[in-house]
UniProtKB/TrEMBL annotation:
Lineage: Bacteria, Pseudomonadati, Pseudomonadota, Gammaproteobacteria, Alteromonadales
Superkingdom assignment: Bacteria
Pfam families linked to this entry: PhaG_MnhG_YufB (PF03334)
Example GO molecular function: sodium:proton antiporter activity
Source species of the chain: Idiomarina xiamenensis 10-D-4
Membrane-spanning residues: 15-39, 51-70, 76-97
Alphabetically ordered keywords of this record: Membrane, Transmembrane, Transmembrane helix
Protein name: Monovalent cation/H+ antiporter subunit G
Annotated InterPro entries: PhaG_MnhG_YufB
Length: 129
């Protein structure tokens, strides 16, 4: 059925949908690569939540364009999918980050912990250093 739909698409819609789907796939790949390569939990958490959310948004946008033009009608479930992704990914990332800070998971040696830095700065001010 999809092959019949793609035959009916105007060229501009085909190119635009392909662009957004490829762009979304690129962002999702970069986010997945960051998950595999980055050194500690907090940096690994950052890459997939940001890039994969944008990547899936691009794929959903490409799907909206493709199916809206091919079927001649807009479907609300694409917007619901996008809203679900845009709401759940940041919330779950925030909860995971808070749990990691609470558990004081080991961090990469070049990561600055601003909680302890501000505490040390306050101590230096009190001691006159």
């Amino acid at each position: 059925m999809i092959s019949n739909l793609s035959m009916q698409l105007p060229q501009w819609a085909d190119w635009l949908a392909s662009f957004f789907i490829c762009l979304g796939a690129l962002f999702a790949f970069i986010g997945s690569l960051g998950l595999a390569i980055l050194p500690d939990f907090l940096t690994r958490l950052h890459a997939p939540t940001k890039n994969t959310t944008v990547g899936l948004g691009g794929v959903v946008l490409g799907s909206i364009i493709f199916f809206s033009v091919a079927e001649g009608a807009f479907r609300i479930h694409f917007i619901l999918i996008a809203l679900f992704l845009l709401l759940t990914a940041p919330i779950s990332a925030h909860l995971l980050a808070k749990a990691a800070l609470h558990l004081d998971l080991p961090r990469y040696k070049k990561t600055t912990d601003y909680r302890t830095q501000s505490y040390n700065d306050e101590l230096d001010k009190k001691n006159g250093a």
